[in-house]
Amino acid sequence: MPAVRDRVRVVVQGGGRRARRIGLARLLWVGAEVITTVGVVVALLVVHQVWWTNRQAVAGAEEQVRALERRWAGGGGDGDGVGGAGGGGGPDVPGVEEAPGVVVGGSEGGSGGGAGGGAGVGASPPAGAGARPAPAGSGPARDEAYGVLRIPKLGLSVPVAEGVDRRAVLDKGYVGHYPGTAQPGAEGNFAVAGHRNTHGEPFRYLNRLREGDEVLVDLRGRRYTYVVGKVLAETSPGDVGVIAPVPRSGVGPGYGYGEPGSYITLTTCTPEYTSKYRMVVWGVLKGVVGAGR
Questions:
Q1: Global confidence as pTM
Q2: What is the pLDDT of residues 85-139, one digit of tens each?
Q3: How far apart are CA 274 and CA 197, in angstroms?
Q4: Any catalytic annotation for residue 48?
Q5: How far is 150 from 260, CA to CA, in rounded Å?
Q6: Is 195 a catalytic residue?
Q7: How far is CA 149 from CA 166, 189, 193, in A?
Q8: Which pLDDT does position 9 carry in this prediction?
Q9: Out of 150, 177, 195, 248, which one is annotated catalytic?
Q10: Has 132 been annotated as catalytic?
């Protein structure tokens, strides 16, 4: 009898080890399925963010450019006073979650973070901005596409809209005009922001611009030609001096200008796929051709 009990005990113990192995195998299988599912979801999100949003935004931006050109060819206007000094009320310097431009306050985040749509990070003008508010109704409406920015070297033609709201402007693949900065052709600084990555990424290759390259702005049959003069490869998000009427970096005082003039400022995030710093390209008005000139 003792021998029989020993044999039974051995059989029972062997069955327990097999059960544990089966349980471990099932657990590993479930874990592998979960990891695979999460990986697929993440991959789909990346594809959507990097590829699909670009495709949608580029298509929409191209159609908007064509719509503006058809309107101008037909003699349609885009609001009296566009091309004047002011651009609506006071400047609304955006946060990172609204525009990849310059920020006052707010927290930094990666590209694609935040909700946008008027987070109200900085409603006061940048130091030294001094922009004159335009009379009511004299400029383009908020979020309205009213011009076309062209950079021949980059093969870029993209709508310019009033404001730098993320959802209403930038995520459409447009570049946004900082309210309170000058309009094209006026004395002061026509400052715009655009995505570097995702949502059409109009400023993806802004780093390729060099001194002497042309930046064109079309408004109702009139073309303003700016020539790139200076490039600031990296500055902090709070460097508001770069969009002042006489643009000059407050972080790197050697970068910028010292005298009044008619400037253009292009801002975007850097390095790519982050919003840690800002890249700035400045140009000076070279000439104007078209209606009324």
A1: 0.71
A2: 343 333 333 333 344 444 433 323 333 333 333 322 222 333 333 334 333 346 7
A3: 9
A4: no
A5: 24
A6: yes
A7: 18, 15, 11
A8: 56
A9: 195
A10: no
Taking residues 256-268, what's their average pLDDT?
97
Q: Out of 166, 196, 248, 278, which one is annotated catalytic? A: 278
Q: Where are the domains of the chain?
A: 49-290
Q: Report the pLDDT value the prediction gives residue 54, as an integer from 0 to 100.
A: 87
Q: Are 212 and 76 in contact (CB under 8 A)?
A: no
Which stretch of 88-97, 162-171, 238-247, 252-261 has the lowest confidence by average pLDDT?
88-97
The CA distance from 192 to 87, in Å, is 12
- Report pLDDT for 233: 96
Q: Which fold has domain 49-290?
A: Sortase; Chain: A; (2.40.260)
Neighbouring CB atoms inside 10 A of 69's CB total 14
CB 83 within 8 A of CB 186: yes
Q: Tens digits of per-residue pLDDT, 45-64?
A: 665 556 677 888 999 999 99
How many CB atoms sit inside 10 A of residue 89's CB? 15
